[in-house]
Design a protein that fits this description.
mainly alpha; 108 residues
Length: 108
Amino acid sequence: MSTNQSEQAAAQKQQKGSEKQTKTTQTNKKVAGKKQKQQAEKAQKQQRPKTRRRVFPIWLRIVTVVFLSAIALIAGLMIGYGVIGDGNAIDVLKKATWQHIIDIINKE
């Protein structure tokens, strides 16, 4: 029986040793995988072109859009009042015209 017990003890030691080796191998694989990911990220950063300076800054884009929208609104009002409404197109820019329109709306 002692040989059987010693064989079992030896088998247990061998199993523990193989478990430790498996854990160590898994840990090494994880570390190697992380290193590879880091190297890949560094390579991507190096491949990316450097950020270029904007020729037309965002704030200028916003100002331009607002300005062009105002011009389009005024042009539309002039066309609507002058061509469709048979009035003088320049009259749409006068305060008296808008006061008259507001008086008509509020007259009810």
